[in-house]
Amino acid sequence: MLKADDQSVTYRELGPADESALIEFLVRNNDPATTRHFNPFPMTAKGAAAVIRTMPLDHYYGGILAGQIVAIGMLRGWSEGYSIPSFGLIVDARIRGRGIGRALTRFTLDRAADFGVDTIRLSVYASNKQALALYRSLEFEEQSRATIGEGAQSDEKIIMTKSIAAVNLPANTPPRGFIPVATPALVGKEREYVLDCLDSNWISSNGKYIGRFETSFAEFCGVQHSLACCNGTVALHLALLGLGIGPGDEVLVPTLTYIASANAVTYCGAKPVFVDSEPDTWNIEPAALEAAIGPRTKAILVVHLYGHPANMDPILAVARNHGLAVVEDAAEAHGAEYKGKRVGSLGDVATFSFYGNKVITTGEGGMVATNDPALAERMLVLRGQGQDLKRRYWFPIVGYNYRMTNIEAAIGLAQLEKIDWHLSRRRQHAKQYQARLGNQPGLVLSPERPWARNAYWMNCAVLPTDLTVTRDEVMQQLQLRGVETRPFFYPMHVLPPYKPAAQNGKFPVADRLAAWGLNLPSSALLTENEIDYVCDSLLEILNGSRT
Ligand SMILES: Cc1ncc(COP(=O)(O)O)c(C=O)c1O
User: For the whole model, what pTM was predicted?
Assistant: First the structure.
Protein backbone atom coordinates (compact mmCIF):
# COMPACT_ATOMS: atom_id res chain seq x y z
CA MET A 1 0.00 0.00 0.00
CA LEU A 2 2.90 2.35 0.71
CA LYS A 3 4.57 1.63 -2.61
CA ALA A 4 2.64 4.17 -4.65
CA ASP A 5 4.73 6.91 -6.26
CA ASP A 6 5.01 10.39 -4.78
CA GLN A 7 2.42 11.83 -7.14
CA SER A 8 -0.29 10.11 -5.20
CA VAL A 9 0.59 11.83 -1.91
CA THR A 10 -1.73 14.64 -0.90
CA TYR A 11 -1.07 17.25 1.75
CA ARG A 12 -3.67 18.76 4.01
CA GLU A 13 -4.30 20.08 7.50
CA LEU A 14 -5.23 17.39 10.00
CA GLY A 15 -8.32 17.92 12.14
CA PRO A 16 -10.22 16.28 14.98
CA ALA A 17 -11.31 13.42 12.68
CA ASP A 18 -7.65 12.45 12.21
CA GLU A 19 -6.91 12.24 15.91
CA SER A 20 -6.68 8.48 16.33
CA ALA A 21 -4.65 8.07 13.12
CA LEU A 22 -2.36 10.84 14.35
CA ILE A 23 -1.86 9.18 17.74
CA GLU A 24 -1.07 5.89 16.07
CA PHE A 25 1.38 7.65 13.77
CA LEU A 26 3.11 9.48 16.64
CA VAL A 27 3.52 6.30 18.66
CA ARG A 28 4.88 4.26 15.75
CA ASN A 29 7.32 6.92 14.68
CA ASN A 30 8.62 7.78 18.13
CA ASP A 31 9.59 4.20 18.83
CA PRO A 32 13.39 4.09 19.42
CA ALA A 33 13.44 0.97 17.22
CA THR A 34 12.35 2.92 14.14
CA THR A 35 13.92 6.33 14.77
CA ARG A 36 17.46 6.46 13.52
CA HIS A 37 18.67 9.21 15.74
CA PHE A 38 18.77 10.07 19.41
CA ASN A 39 15.27 10.00 20.86
CA PRO A 40 15.02 11.10 24.47
CA PHE A 41 11.23 10.81 24.56
CA PRO A 42 9.84 7.57 23.13
CA MET A 43 6.10 8.05 23.16
CA THR A 44 3.21 5.96 24.43
CA ALA A 45 -0.35 6.20 23.09
CA LYS A 46 -1.29 8.02 26.28
CA GLY A 47 1.58 10.46 25.84
CA ALA A 48 0.66 11.09 22.21
CA ALA A 49 -2.97 11.69 23.15
CA ALA A 50 -1.83 14.14 25.81
CA VAL A 51 0.36 15.99 23.32
CA ILE A 52 -2.60 16.42 21.01
CA ARG A 53 -4.99 17.37 23.79
CA THR A 54 -2.77 19.99 25.35
CA MET A 55 -2.05 21.67 22.06
CA PRO A 56 -5.49 22.42 20.65
CA LEU A 57 -4.25 25.58 19.05
CA ASP A 58 -1.32 24.07 17.17
CA HIS A 59 -1.48 22.99 13.57
CA TYR A 60 -0.76 19.53 12.23
CA TYR A 61 -0.42 18.83 8.54
CA GLY A 62 -0.28 15.41 6.99
CA GLY A 63 1.15 13.78 3.91
CA ILE A 64 -1.57 11.27 3.03
CA LEU A 65 -0.87 8.20 0.96
CA ALA A 66 -3.62 5.70 0.20
CA GLY A 67 -5.69 7.15 3.03
CA GLN A 68 -2.87 6.75 5.54
CA ILE A 69 -0.85 9.44 7.28
CA VAL A 70 2.75 8.89 6.18
CA ALA A 71 4.29 12.15 7.36
CA ILE A 72 3.32 14.99 9.65
CA GLY A 73 4.42 18.61 9.76
CA MET A 74 3.67 20.57 12.92
CA LEU A 75 3.46 24.25 13.70
CA ARG A 76 3.61 24.79 17.41
CA GLY A 77 4.34 27.35 20.05
CA TRP A 78 1.68 29.93 19.26
CA SER A 79 -0.27 28.98 22.32
CA GLU A 80 2.54 30.51 24.40
CA GLY A 81 1.97 33.81 22.72
CA TYR A 82 5.25 35.47 22.27
CA SER A 83 7.55 32.66 21.20
CA ILE A 84 8.62 32.14 17.61
CA PRO A 85 6.43 29.38 16.19
CA SER A 86 8.30 26.13 15.84
CA PHE A 87 8.23 23.53 13.11
CA GLY A 88 8.48 19.78 13.52
CA LEU A 89 8.52 17.01 10.95
CA ILE A 90 8.09 13.27 11.30
CA VAL A 91 8.27 11.02 8.27
CA ASP A 92 7.24 7.37 8.38
CA ALA A 93 10.39 5.23 8.20
CA ARG A 94 8.83 3.18 5.39
CA ILE A 95 8.62 6.03 2.88
CA ARG A 96 11.75 8.02 3.68
CA GLY A 97 13.94 9.28 0.87
CA ARG A 98 11.19 10.12 -1.62
CA GLY A 99 10.94 13.85 -1.07
CA ILE A 100 7.70 13.61 0.89
CA GLY A 101 9.27 15.21 3.98
CA ARG A 102 10.59 18.07 1.84
CA ALA A 103 7.23 18.62 0.14
CA LEU A 104 5.39 18.54 3.46
CA THR A 105 7.90 20.97 5.00
CA ARG A 106 7.30 23.41 2.16
CA PHE A 107 3.54 22.94 2.45
CA THR A 108 3.63 23.56 6.21
CA LEU A 109 5.89 26.61 5.94
CA ASP A 110 3.54 28.08 3.34
CA ARG A 111 0.68 27.70 5.79
CA ALA A 112 2.75 29.48 8.46
CA ALA A 113 3.37 32.27 5.97
CA ASP A 114 -0.36 32.41 5.30
CA PHE A 115 -0.84 33.21 8.98
CA GLY A 116 1.63 36.05 8.66
CA VAL A 117 4.44 34.35 10.60
CA ASP A 118 7.80 35.75 9.60
CA THR A 119 10.30 33.59 11.48
CA ILE A 120 10.06 29.89 12.16
CA ARG A 121 12.25 27.80 14.41
CA LEU A 122 13.04 24.11 14.76
CA SER A 123 15.32 21.81 16.66
CA VAL A 124 17.09 18.85 15.11
CA TYR A 125 19.56 16.31 16.48
CA ALA A 126 23.01 16.35 14.85
CA SER A 127 22.86 12.59 14.30
CA ASN A 128 19.73 13.00 12.18
CA LYS A 129 21.89 13.84 9.15
CA GLN A 130 19.16 13.55 6.56
CA ALA A 131 16.90 16.02 8.38
CA LEU A 132 19.80 18.38 8.94
CA ALA A 133 20.62 18.31 5.23
CA LEU A 134 16.97 18.92 4.37
CA TYR A 135 16.69 21.95 6.64
CA ARG A 136 19.99 23.38 5.43
CA SER A 137 18.86 23.03 1.84
CA LEU A 138 15.68 24.88 2.77
CA GLU A 139 17.84 27.70 4.15
CA PHE A 140 17.28 27.19 7.82
CA GLU A 141 20.17 28.79 9.68
CA GLU A 142 21.87 27.31 12.71
CA GLN A 143 21.45 29.42 15.86
CA SER A 144 22.81 27.28 18.68
CA ARG A 145 23.90 23.79 19.71
CA ALA A 146 23.60 22.04 23.06
CA THR A 147 24.62 18.57 24.17
CA ILE A 148 21.73 16.50 25.46
CA GLY A 149 22.29 13.30 27.44
CA GLU A 150 25.59 11.64 28.31
CA GLY A 151 28.14 9.32 26.68
CA ALA A 152 26.79 6.98 24.02
CA GLN A 153 23.29 8.19 24.85
CA SER A 154 24.13 11.79 24.02
CA ASP A 155 23.50 13.90 20.96
CA GLU A 156 23.77 17.52 19.94
CA LYS A 157 20.51 19.43 19.71
CA ILE A 158 20.69 22.14 17.08
CA ILE A 159 18.31 25.09 16.99
CA MET A 160 17.72 26.54 13.53
CA THR A 161 15.57 29.41 12.30
CA LYS A 162 14.37 30.63 8.94
CA SER A 163 12.68 33.80 7.79
CA ILE A 164 9.68 32.94 5.72
CA ALA A 165 8.31 35.28 3.13
CA ALA A 166 4.65 36.05 3.50
CA VAL A 167 3.03 34.40 0.53
CA ASN A 168 -0.64 33.97 -0.33
CA LEU A 169 -1.69 36.30 2.44
CA PRO A 170 -5.45 36.45 2.84
CA ALA A 171 -6.95 39.83 1.97
CA ASN A 172 -7.54 40.72 5.61
CA THR A 173 -4.17 39.70 7.02
CA PRO A 174 -3.70 40.57 10.67
CA PRO A 175 -1.66 43.77 10.80
CA ARG A 176 1.43 42.35 12.53
CA GLY A 177 1.04 38.75 11.58
CA PHE A 178 0.04 37.37 14.91
CA ILE A 179 -1.95 39.05 17.63
CA PRO A 180 -1.06 37.68 21.07
CA VAL A 181 -3.53 37.62 23.92
CA ALA A 182 -1.18 39.54 26.22
CA THR A 183 2.27 41.08 26.14
CA PRO A 184 4.20 43.19 28.62
CA ALA A 185 4.34 46.88 27.68
CA LEU A 186 7.67 48.26 28.88
CA VAL A 187 6.99 51.87 28.00
CA GLY A 188 8.60 53.70 30.92
CA LYS A 189 11.97 53.77 32.66
CA GLU A 190 12.26 49.98 33.04
CA ARG A 191 15.56 49.83 31.21
CA GLU A 192 17.08 52.81 33.03
CA TYR A 193 16.15 51.47 36.47
CA VAL A 194 17.32 47.92 35.72
CA LEU A 195 20.65 49.21 34.43
CA ASP A 196 20.94 51.24 37.61
CA CYS A 197 20.58 48.00 39.62
CA LEU A 198 23.28 46.33 37.52
CA ASP A 199 25.64 49.30 37.59
CA SER A 200 25.26 49.76 41.34
CA ASN A 201 25.51 46.02 42.06
CA TRP A 202 22.17 46.00 43.93
CA ILE A 203 20.62 43.01 42.23
CA SER A 204 19.32 40.94 45.12
CA SER A 205 16.47 41.48 47.55
CA ASN A 206 17.88 44.61 49.12
CA GLY A 207 18.05 47.96 47.41
CA LYS A 208 16.23 51.20 46.98
CA TYR A 209 13.73 50.07 44.36
CA ILE A 210 12.03 47.61 46.70
CA GLY A 211 11.09 50.28 49.22
CA ARG A 212 10.17 52.78 46.50
CA PHE A 213 7.97 50.26 44.72
CA GLU A 214 6.26 49.21 47.96
CA THR A 215 5.59 52.78 49.08
CA SER A 216 4.31 53.90 45.68
CA PHE A 217 2.12 50.84 45.36
CA ALA A 218 0.58 51.36 48.81
CA GLU A 219 -0.15 54.95 47.84
CA PHE A 220 -1.65 53.83 44.55
CA CYS A 221 -4.03 51.44 46.32
CA GLY A 222 -4.80 53.86 49.13
CA VAL A 223 -3.45 51.62 51.90
CA GLN A 224 -0.88 52.08 54.66
CA HIS A 225 1.34 49.07 54.04
CA SER A 226 2.42 46.98 51.13
CA LEU A 227 5.09 44.32 50.87
CA ALA A 228 6.62 43.07 47.66
CA CYS A 229 7.11 39.34 47.26
CA CYS A 230 8.03 36.81 44.58
CA ASN A 231 4.65 36.23 42.94
CA GLY A 232 0.91 36.52 43.37
CA THR A 233 0.54 33.00 44.69
CA VAL A 234 2.92 33.50 47.62
CA ALA A 235 1.29 36.88 48.23
CA LEU A 236 -1.92 34.95 48.88
CA HIS A 237 -0.06 32.46 51.07
CA LEU A 238 1.44 35.30 53.15
CA ALA A 239 -1.94 37.01 53.47
CA LEU A 240 -3.71 33.86 54.66
CA LEU A 241 -0.90 32.89 57.05
CA GLY A 242 -0.83 36.46 58.34
CA LEU A 243 -4.53 36.16 59.14
CA GLY A 244 -3.80 32.97 61.05
CA ILE A 245 -5.55 30.60 58.63
CA GLY A 246 -4.41 27.07 59.42
CA PRO A 247 -5.27 23.38 59.45
CA GLY A 248 -8.97 22.64 59.90
CA ASP A 249 -10.07 26.10 58.81
CA GLU A 250 -12.29 26.78 55.82
CA VAL A 251 -12.08 29.69 53.42
CA LEU A 252 -14.81 30.60 50.92
CA VAL A 253 -13.39 30.94 47.41
CA PRO A 254 -15.15 31.54 44.09
CA THR A 255 -15.03 28.39 42.00
CA LEU A 256 -14.33 30.44 38.87
CA THR A 257 -10.79 31.66 39.46
CA TYR A 258 -7.19 30.82 38.70
CA ILE A 259 -6.04 27.84 40.74
CA ALA A 260 -3.59 29.90 42.82
CA SER A 261 -6.53 31.30 44.85
CA ALA A 262 -7.52 27.81 46.01
CA ASN A 263 -3.98 26.46 46.25
CA ALA A 264 -2.89 29.16 48.68
CA VAL A 265 -5.69 28.06 51.05
CA THR A 266 -4.52 24.46 50.68
CA TYR A 267 -0.89 25.44 51.44
CA CYS A 268 -2.11 26.63 54.86
CA GLY A 269 -3.62 23.22 55.57
CA ALA A 270 -7.06 24.79 55.28
CA LYS A 271 -9.91 23.85 52.96
CA PRO A 272 -11.28 26.02 50.16
CA VAL A 273 -15.07 25.90 50.03
CA PHE A 274 -16.29 26.88 46.61
CA VAL A 275 -19.01 29.38 45.81
CA ASP A 276 -20.75 29.99 42.46
CA SER A 277 -20.35 33.17 40.40
CA GLU A 278 -22.58 36.21 40.23
CA PRO A 279 -24.04 36.36 36.70
CA ASP A 280 -23.34 40.03 36.06
CA THR A 281 -19.84 40.41 37.57
CA TRP A 282 -18.57 36.81 37.19
CA ASN A 283 -17.22 37.15 40.74
CA ILE A 284 -18.15 35.39 43.97
CA GLU A 285 -21.97 35.42 44.40
CA PRO A 286 -22.76 37.37 47.60
CA ALA A 287 -26.18 35.69 47.87
CA ALA A 288 -24.55 32.25 48.01
CA LEU A 289 -22.12 33.03 50.86
CA GLU A 290 -24.39 32.37 53.85
CA ALA A 291 -25.17 28.83 52.72
CA ALA A 292 -21.47 28.03 52.39
CA ILE A 293 -20.49 29.25 55.87
CA GLY A 294 -19.91 26.59 58.51
CA PRO A 295 -18.46 26.47 62.03
CA ARG A 296 -14.89 26.34 60.65
CA THR A 297 -15.19 29.17 58.14
CA LYS A 298 -12.55 31.82 58.88
CA ALA A 299 -12.38 34.00 55.78
CA ILE A 300 -13.83 34.95 52.41
CA LEU A 301 -11.32 35.17 49.59
CA VAL A 302 -12.79 37.34 46.85
CA VAL A 303 -11.23 37.48 43.39
CA HIS A 304 -11.63 40.49 41.12
CA LEU A 305 -11.78 38.28 38.06
CA TYR A 306 -10.38 39.51 34.75
CA GLY A 307 -10.22 43.05 36.18
CA HIS A 308 -13.80 43.57 37.40
CA PRO A 309 -14.18 44.23 41.14
CA ALA A 310 -16.30 41.90 43.22
CA ASN A 311 -19.58 43.20 44.64
CA MET A 312 -17.95 44.16 47.96
CA ASP A 313 -20.67 45.73 50.17
CA PRO A 314 -22.86 42.62 50.52
CA ILE A 315 -19.72 40.49 50.89
CA LEU A 316 -18.34 42.71 53.65
CA ALA A 317 -21.76 42.68 55.38
CA VAL A 318 -21.80 38.87 55.49
CA ALA A 319 -18.18 38.85 56.71
CA ARG A 320 -19.01 41.29 59.51
CA ASN A 321 -22.06 39.30 60.60
CA HIS A 322 -20.04 36.10 60.88
CA GLY A 323 -16.73 37.57 62.08
CA LEU A 324 -14.87 36.51 58.93
CA ALA A 325 -11.77 38.09 57.43
CA VAL A 326 -11.88 39.27 53.82
CA VAL A 327 -8.95 38.73 51.45
CA GLU A 328 -9.00 40.42 48.06
CA ASP A 329 -7.19 38.48 45.36
CA ALA A 330 -6.54 41.43 43.07
CA ALA A 331 -3.95 39.62 40.94
CA GLU A 332 -5.86 40.60 37.81
CA ALA A 333 -7.25 43.98 38.78
CA HIS A 334 -4.59 46.63 39.54
CA GLY A 335 -6.37 49.98 39.45
CA ALA A 336 -9.93 48.62 39.34
CA GLU A 337 -12.37 50.54 41.53
CA TYR A 338 -15.37 49.69 43.65
CA LYS A 339 -17.57 52.72 44.35
CA GLY A 340 -14.62 55.03 43.73
CA LYS A 341 -12.15 53.11 45.94
CA ARG A 342 -9.29 51.17 44.42
CA VAL A 343 -9.21 47.42 44.92
CA GLY A 344 -6.59 46.47 47.47
CA SER A 345 -8.12 48.78 50.06
CA LEU A 346 -11.50 47.08 50.41
CA GLY A 347 -10.93 44.04 52.65
CA ASP A 348 -8.55 43.14 55.49
CA VAL A 349 -5.70 42.34 53.15
CA ALA A 350 -5.20 42.23 49.38
CA THR A 351 -2.80 40.53 47.03
CA PHE A 352 -1.53 41.33 43.54
CA SER A 353 0.41 39.52 40.84
CA PHE A 354 2.98 41.08 38.52
CA TYR A 355 3.35 38.13 36.19
CA GLY A 356 4.28 39.09 32.61
CA ASN A 357 0.72 39.16 31.30
CA LYS A 358 -0.73 41.32 34.11
CA VAL A 359 -1.84 44.98 33.97
CA ILE A 360 1.64 45.89 35.16
CA THR A 361 4.48 43.43 35.49
CA THR A 362 7.80 42.75 37.16
CA GLY A 363 8.37 39.53 35.16
CA GLU A 364 7.38 37.44 38.16
CA GLY A 365 6.29 39.23 41.29
CA GLY A 366 3.59 39.90 43.82
CA MET A 367 2.44 42.32 46.52
CA VAL A 368 0.39 42.19 49.69
CA ALA A 369 -1.43 45.33 50.82
CA THR A 370 -3.19 46.12 54.08
CA ASN A 371 -4.15 48.90 56.45
CA ASP A 372 -3.53 46.71 59.48
CA PRO A 373 -0.01 47.37 60.91
CA ALA A 374 0.07 44.20 63.02
CA LEU A 375 -0.89 42.07 60.02
CA ALA A 376 1.72 43.87 57.88
CA GLU A 377 4.37 43.03 60.48
CA ARG A 378 3.39 39.37 60.65
CA MET A 379 3.62 39.13 56.87
CA LEU A 380 6.99 40.91 56.89
CA VAL A 381 8.36 38.33 59.34
CA LEU A 382 6.87 35.43 57.37
CA ARG A 383 8.35 36.79 54.12
CA GLY A 384 11.84 36.88 55.67
CA GLN A 385 12.20 33.26 56.88
CA GLY A 386 10.46 34.09 60.15
CA GLN A 387 13.41 36.13 61.41
CA ASP A 388 12.77 38.37 64.42
CA LEU A 389 12.72 41.96 63.17
CA LYS A 390 14.98 43.11 66.03
CA ARG A 391 17.28 40.15 66.48
CA ARG A 392 19.30 38.92 63.52
CA TYR A 393 19.37 35.15 62.92
CA TRP A 394 16.79 34.62 65.64
CA PHE A 395 13.84 32.74 64.16
CA PRO A 396 10.90 32.40 66.54
CA ILE A 397 8.75 30.80 63.83
CA VAL A 398 9.13 28.90 60.59
CA GLY A 399 8.86 31.46 57.79
CA TYR A 400 9.56 31.59 54.08
CA ASN A 401 11.92 33.24 51.65
CA TYR A 402 9.26 35.07 49.64
CA ARG A 403 11.24 38.23 48.86
CA MET A 404 11.27 40.19 45.62
CA THR A 405 14.55 41.28 44.01
CA ASN A 406 15.62 44.88 43.51
CA ILE A 407 15.68 44.28 39.74
CA GLU A 408 12.06 43.13 39.74
CA ALA A 409 11.07 46.08 41.91
CA ALA A 410 12.93 48.42 39.52
CA ILE A 411 10.78 47.14 36.66
CA GLY A 412 7.69 47.35 38.86
CA LEU A 413 8.36 50.96 39.84
CA ALA A 414 8.84 51.97 36.20
CA GLN A 415 5.60 50.19 35.30
CA LEU A 416 3.72 51.79 38.18
CA GLU A 417 4.90 55.25 37.11
CA LYS A 418 3.03 54.61 33.85
CA ILE A 419 -0.01 52.82 35.24
CA ASP A 420 -2.41 55.56 34.17
CA TRP A 421 -1.25 55.02 30.60
CA HIS A 422 -1.68 51.23 30.93
CA LEU A 423 -5.17 51.60 32.37
CA SER A 424 -6.34 54.18 29.87
CA ARG A 425 -5.11 52.08 26.92
CA ARG A 426 -7.01 49.10 28.29
CA ARG A 427 -10.16 51.16 28.79
CA GLN A 428 -9.87 52.51 25.26
CA HIS A 429 -9.51 48.97 23.89
CA ALA A 430 -12.52 47.74 25.86
CA LYS A 431 -14.53 50.62 24.39
CA GLN A 432 -13.53 49.62 20.89
CA TYR A 433 -14.46 45.95 21.50
CA GLN A 434 -17.78 47.12 22.92
CA ALA A 435 -18.48 49.36 19.93
CA ARG A 436 -17.68 46.62 17.43
CA LEU A 437 -19.15 43.57 19.18
CA GLY A 438 -21.54 44.93 21.80
CA ASN A 439 -24.70 44.50 19.73
CA GLN A 440 -24.19 40.86 18.74
CA PRO A 441 -27.13 38.76 19.89
CA GLY A 442 -26.21 36.49 22.77
CA LEU A 443 -22.59 37.70 22.95
CA VAL A 444 -21.61 39.06 26.37
CA LEU A 445 -18.48 41.18 26.74
CA SER A 446 -16.53 42.17 29.88
CA PRO A 447 -18.99 43.68 32.33
CA GLU A 448 -18.74 47.02 34.06
CA ARG A 449 -21.39 47.52 36.70
CA PRO A 450 -22.49 51.11 37.41
CA TRP A 451 -20.57 51.02 40.72
CA ALA A 452 -17.43 49.58 39.17
CA ARG A 453 -14.43 50.65 37.20
CA ASN A 454 -13.07 47.62 35.39
CA ALA A 455 -9.27 47.46 34.96
CA TYR A 456 -9.92 45.41 31.80
CA TRP A 457 -7.01 43.08 32.44
CA MET A 458 -8.65 40.78 29.91
CA ASN A 459 -11.23 41.70 27.35
CA CYS A 460 -13.63 38.81 27.65
CA ALA A 461 -16.35 37.42 25.43
CA VAL A 462 -18.91 34.87 26.54
CA LEU A 463 -20.23 33.34 23.34
CA PRO A 464 -23.87 32.71 22.45
CA THR A 465 -24.78 29.13 23.30
CA ASP A 466 -26.76 28.56 20.11
CA LEU A 467 -23.78 28.44 17.74
CA THR A 468 -23.16 25.43 15.50
CA VAL A 469 -19.58 25.35 16.80
CA THR A 470 -18.05 25.05 20.26
CA ARG A 471 -16.10 27.77 22.04
CA ASP A 472 -12.89 25.83 21.38
CA GLU A 473 -13.66 25.65 17.66
CA VAL A 474 -14.20 29.42 17.58
CA MET A 475 -10.80 29.80 19.27
CA GLN A 476 -9.19 27.49 16.73
CA GLN A 477 -10.66 29.46 13.87
CA LEU A 478 -9.37 32.68 15.40
CA GLN A 479 -5.96 31.09 15.79
CA LEU A 480 -6.01 30.20 12.09
CA ARG A 481 -6.53 33.87 11.39
CA GLY A 482 -3.55 34.75 13.59
CA VAL A 483 -5.55 35.79 16.65
CA GLU A 484 -4.55 34.23 19.95
CA THR A 485 -7.24 33.82 22.61
CA ARG A 486 -7.51 31.96 25.93
CA PRO A 487 -10.39 29.98 27.32
CA PHE A 488 -11.85 31.04 30.67
CA PHE A 489 -10.40 29.15 33.61
CA TYR A 490 -11.79 25.73 34.45
CA PRO A 491 -13.81 26.18 37.65
CA MET A 492 -12.06 24.73 40.69
CA HIS A 493 -14.82 22.17 41.36
CA VAL A 494 -13.95 20.24 38.19
CA LEU A 495 -10.18 20.12 38.74
CA PRO A 496 -8.70 16.89 40.15
CA PRO A 497 -7.31 18.33 43.42
CA TYR A 498 -10.63 19.92 44.33
CA LYS A 499 -13.32 17.85 42.61
CA PRO A 500 -13.71 15.20 45.33
CA ALA A 501 -14.42 17.74 48.09
CA ALA A 502 -16.79 19.77 45.89
CA GLN A 503 -18.78 16.76 44.70
CA ASN A 504 -22.23 17.83 45.82
CA GLY A 505 -21.94 21.48 44.90
CA LYS A 506 -23.88 23.03 42.05
CA PHE A 507 -22.22 25.91 40.23
CA PRO A 508 -24.39 26.57 37.18
CA VAL A 509 -23.24 30.15 36.52
CA ALA A 510 -19.54 29.33 36.74
CA ASP A 511 -20.06 26.21 34.60
CA ARG A 512 -21.74 28.20 31.84
CA LEU A 513 -19.11 30.98 31.90
CA ALA A 514 -16.27 28.46 31.89
CA ALA A 515 -17.75 26.60 28.91
CA TRP A 516 -18.43 29.64 26.74
CA GLY A 517 -16.01 32.34 27.88
CA LEU A 518 -12.78 33.34 26.19
CA ASN A 519 -10.23 36.10 26.57
CA LEU A 520 -9.63 38.24 23.50
CA PRO A 521 -6.29 39.96 22.82
CA SER A 522 -5.83 42.47 25.62
CA SER A 523 -2.31 43.86 25.58
CA ALA A 524 -1.92 47.58 26.23
CA LEU A 525 0.18 47.67 23.05
CA LEU A 526 -2.67 46.62 20.73
CA THR A 527 -3.41 49.02 17.92
CA GLU A 528 -6.83 50.13 16.72
CA ASN A 529 -6.29 48.19 13.48
CA GLU A 530 -5.45 45.04 15.36
CA ILE A 531 -8.61 45.22 17.46
CA ASP A 532 -10.62 45.85 14.29
CA TYR A 533 -9.02 42.78 12.76
CA VAL A 534 -9.86 40.67 15.84
CA CYS A 535 -13.47 41.90 15.75
CA ASP A 536 -13.82 41.33 11.99
CA SER A 537 -12.48 37.80 12.44
CA LEU A 538 -14.79 36.99 15.34
CA LEU A 539 -17.83 38.43 13.56
CA GLU A 540 -17.07 36.43 10.45
CA ILE A 541 -16.81 33.22 12.50
CA LEU A 542 -19.97 33.95 14.51
CA ASN A 543 -21.98 34.87 11.43
CA GLY A 544 -20.96 31.63 9.78
CA SER A 545 -21.93 29.61 12.86
CA ARG A 546 -25.44 30.83 13.68
CA THR A 547 -28.18 28.23 13.70
C1 LIG B 1 -6.77 35.33 40.32
C2 LIG B 1 -5.31 35.02 40.44
N3 LIG B 1 -4.79 34.78 41.64
C4 LIG B 1 -3.50 34.52 41.81
C5 LIG B 1 -2.63 34.49 40.74
C6 LIG B 1 -1.21 34.08 40.99
O7 LIG B 1 -0.27 34.99 40.60
P8 LIG B 1 1.20 34.51 40.17
O9 LIG B 1 1.06 33.89 38.82
O10 LIG B 1 1.98 35.78 40.16
O11 LIG B 1 1.68 33.55 41.20
C12 LIG B 1 -3.12 34.75 39.47
C13 LIG B 1 -2.32 34.74 38.26
O14 LIG B 1 -1.44 34.49 37.77
C15 LIG B 1 -4.49 35.01 39.29
O16 LIG B 1 -5.00 35.22 38.08
Answer: 0.71
